[in-house]
């Protein structure tokens, strides 16, 4: 099938493009800078600067991953607006694409897998979090809620909608580990604050496999947590990473230092959720990397 991907040049999107092409699917990618991202993606990808550019080649499925990095810049009010708009604007464009396909008498995509994140739940302390957990109201929740709401109109257009709330994505060459590895390799790593906050995580290959399952299984719709079944606290994460690297992790970063340096954005590091992939497991999804020890072992061997 033809799969349209927004955010296709990102850390998850690149691997998803590779996997879909390997399975014989056609891949369409939306990027504001097509020429710039061509070198990052397989040659077979059809890359255009707007989702509306694919009206003449209607996708049969959509994966919506686009959005500015939530940890890229300090959260000024202007940056908060940019984080929201980068997600909502792209999602609205996908809804408009579906509307235009209907107007022109063409079939709409069968399914849209739309991104969200663990931030939807906000700070949940030590309680176990499933797709049914009531969120804690804070900026990360409001950001994700608006992103999810922007995708809802496709359901009225006949598109099956699955929303994937992802944890921290782990793999070599990007994601969470890209910033963590350098200090840890030097023996300068340590926990953030108390270290008691949970860090739901997922190996990139498992996340891509979950996206493909949601694309292919016509019975799956609604909210899904995209994280491994065994989340860990920050202290456990740090200990496991240091052990795999054969380095100490004895330099904790106090909470007040993070708050002073990052402001409100420090909540990304100092709060968390014990998020579990209840609905994916109910659907029979099998994680290749269910534990952090196994995931880091595979990643760091590379």
| Lateral arrangement of strands in the main beta sheet | 3-2-1-4-5-7-11
How would you state the average pLDDT, rounded? 96
- What is the count of β-strands? 13
| Total of domains | 1
**For this structure, what is the CATH homologous superfamily?**
NAD(P)-binding Rossmann-like Domain
CATH architecture assignment name: 3-Layer(aba) Sandwich
CATH hierarchy class name = Alpha Beta
- Most strands sheet: 7 strands, parallel
Radius of gyration: 19 Å
Structural class: alpha/beta
Overall helicity: 25-40%
DSSP strand (E) fraction? 15-25%
> What's the overall geometry?
globular
The span between the termini is 32 Å
User: What do we call the CATH topology?
Assistant: Rossmann fold
- Counting DSSP H or I runs of 4 or more residues, the number of helices is 11
Which stretches of 5+ consecutive residues score pLDDT under 50?
none
Give an account of the 3D structure:
- This protein is an alpha/beta fold and 302 residues long.
- The chain has one domain: NAD(P)-binding Rossmann-like Domain (Rossmann fold, 3-Layer(aba) Sandwich).
- 39% of the residues lie in helices and 17% in strands.
- The protein contains 11 helices and 13 strands.
- The strands form 4 sheets. The chain has a 7-stranded parallel sheet with strand order 3-2-1-4-5-7-11, with helices on both faces. Strands 6-13 form a two-stranded parallel sheet.
- α7 runs parallel beside α11 (292-300).
- The longest helix has 27 residues, at 77-103.
- It starts with a strand and ends with a helix.
- The mean pLDDT is 96.
